[in-house]
Write a structure and sequence with these properties.
alpha/beta, single chain, Rossmann fold, 7-stranded parallel β-sheet, 412 residues, elongated
């Protein structure tokens, strides 16, 4: 739940939550079928099937998690691409394998799963843990230092769970101990930020044209405007187009991101300067669905500053949680750009000093990461002293200025 709450729209976080749910459901139902009287063997078998299906599904979601964590790969379910199809087929296979489970009543004192069912569990467990381990090790050379650390913590938790769970045939308490130990490892790692489930993703809809603006990494741009129109256009232009300083001037329009089979030169896939395309993150007072429609944004994560409960909503009173989201994104993204408007709304639940302290924290993170931060403010909402404090250590952008250098300081 902790991982999912940090990124409710993240596929890795969703798979992680689903795996843990299935584990606990398997434990719950597994403690029932063994105490049912042999006269009700049909009921015991039905419960055993549910328990085994839940256990195999848990392992299925765990090895599927290795497909998109710590390196996120493109997954589509409607219509399914290769990875999406494999994931759906493996879920169906898990249900089919688990539905063959039966209870053996030859030992009336302690009825247990039949030998065939235990063999099915052993084979599926070994195969899926081997798959998760192989995929994770295959991914390690492709991720940064933090990604490697996250992958090893993930594998440690999986190995402990499986190793201790293998002893559950002797005593069910072993499985409970394995689940508990793995859960503590995952929870502590997520809370400390060592296991990052939030994975930045580039925008799907990409233009072949270069972006019009060059925003330097490790810089914060304070856009002074009445409404966040210019800053949002600038943000959308950056994440949907090729980099301003892209060296591949002869690149061609490409309508698909699933281009692994394409042998033509790709300016983003072959880029050695940034390694990945620009990844965006939005915090706004505008309604996210309207922004997505207006600027054709599909995968860019958004947080709506609102007191209304929702997956993409952020209570302005939870300023520390908002900071945690932004800091986590900027630290994990190798080529990120963050857009924030609504500082005035944050001040309705926090005083200016708290908001400024958070903005300074964001600024410090930008300076030590490979990200850029765009802040949109209406200076009419602040007094002169507050404006001066916001402008300090940040590049000031005034869209209505006549001087070109005052529009974008680093525009070339």
């Amino acid at each position: 739940m902790l991982a999912w709450s940090k990124s409710p729209n993240s596929l890795p976080a969703g798979l992680f939550l689903a795996a843990m749910f299935e584990v606990f459901f398997a434990l719950f139902t597994g403690s029932i079928y063994s105490i049912i009287d042999p006269a009700y063997a049909n009921i015991a078998n039905a419960i055993a099937k549910i328990s085994v299906i839940s256990f195999i599904l848990a392992l299925t979601f765990i090895w599927q998690l290795a497909l998109v964590f710590p390196l996120e790969r493109e997954v589509s379910f409607r219509p399914p691409n290769l990875l999406g199809g494999i994931m759906m087929i493996s879920v169906v296979a898990a249900v089919v394998a688990g539905s063959t489970a039966t209870v053996d009543y030859s030992n009336l004192d302690a009825p247990d799963l039949s030998d065939n069912t235990m063999m099915t569990l052993v084979i599926t467990s070994v195969a899926q843990v081997a798959a998760a381990t192989s995929i994770a090790f295959y991914t390690l050379p492709k991720v940064d230092k933090e990604g490697k650390k996250s992958a090893m913590i993930f594998l440690l938790g999986v190995w402990i769970f499986v190793a201790v769970g293998a002893l559950s045939s002797m005593d069910p308490l072993y499985l409970s101990f394995g689940v508990g130990t793995s859960g503590v490892i995952f929870a502590v790692s997520i809370a400390r930020g060592d296991l990052a489930i939030v994975i930045p993703a580039p925008e799907k809809l990409m233009s072949s044209a270069k972006s019009k603006y060059k925003l330097l990494h490790k810089r914060v741009y304070l856009v002074e405007e009445t409404k966040p129109d210019f800053s949002m256009k600038m943000f959308a232009d950056i994440i949907k187009g090729r980099c301003y300083d892209c060296e591949s001037d002869e690149s061609f329009p490409c309508e698909s991101l699933d281009c692994n089979a394409c042998g033509l030169p790709c300016p983003c896939r072959d880029c050695k300067k940034y390694a990945v395309r620009t990844q965006g993150f939005v915090v706004t007072r505008q309604f996210p669905k309207d922004l997505r429609k207006k600027y054709f944004l599909q995968t860019t994560p958004m947080l709506w500053l609102s007191t209304v409960a929702g997956n993409e909503n952020m209570d302005p009173a939870k300023l520390n949680l908002l900071t945690e989201y932004l800091v986590n994104f900027m630290e994990k993204s190798p080529n990120g750009v963050v857009f924030v408007d609504g500082l005035e709304y944050l001040m309705t639940s926090n005083d200016f000093s708290k908001v400024l302290k958070s903005v300074d924290r964001w600024t410090e993170t930008v300076m030590t990461s490979n990200s850029r931060l765009i802040l949109s403010i209406d200076i009419k909402a602040y007094d002169a002293r507050e404006v001066a404090m916001l402008e300090r250590n940040r590049e000031v952008v005034r869209p209505d200025a006549t001087e070109i250098w005052r529009v974008i300081p680093e525009r070339i």
